[in-house]
Amino acid sequence: MTPSAPAAPLRLDGRVALVTGGARNIGLAIARRLVAEGAAVAVNGPDATEAAAAAAELCGSGVAAGFPADVSQPDAVGAMVDAVIARFGRLDILVNNAATPMTGRVPLFDLDLDAWEQSFAVNARGVFLCSVAAARAMTRGGARATDAAIVNISSVGAVRAHRRAVAYDATKGAVEATTRAMALELAPLGVRVNAVAPGAIGNDRTAALSEADRRRRAEAVPLGRIGAAADVAAAVAFLASADAAYITGQVITVDGGLTAQARPPQAEL
To answer: Which family, according to UniProt (predicted)?
Structure first.
């Protein structure tokens, strides 16, 4: 069972959110949920056409616009945040979802420096650049922000290693450390910073798997299913809302119990 759209009252009514990597998969599900909760949403993606298409879809149920940018580039990030402010007049919520996908996984000795650097450029440097730019916008003129929130998308790979994914897991460990450090720095300014760590979540890549492969992946999950992007979006919406007003510097794991177990069911005696 996956979460449905929230009932009124809308927790994010009147607020403006920027979702990086928001044009597909988990990012698009997050954008959908924030729109459903009343936020105006700026949809970022590296591809202008894709970001515009996602925003057009969201406009059927709320307010959204596309903002293409490479989040690893300082000038592009600054221009994007300026454009969001120009379009919506403010920025209250940032969701750092953009990341290089965990595809092309290779053994450690086959991992080249270019792949390592690219992973960190998007997954870690992008979080830093977008967070600093957004926090400046949230606290313009040195004013204390009201109900401002940054939510970073991490992974269970930050605390439980994937095989053949050294670079990806290293970046997600960096994201969680950054989340805690930024939470301390920004707390006096009224900006909360938290993270969501998804486990096995369905996306456009897993959709291509056979039914047998999907069942096999679900067997290791205590709740017995692969997660849906909407499961992650529900946690993000909570952390972005006033319901989480006294939560900062934390990571919520959304994994169906995957990391709670000592070993998968097949390995139990």
So the answer is: Belongs to the short-chain dehydrogenases/reductases (SDR) family.
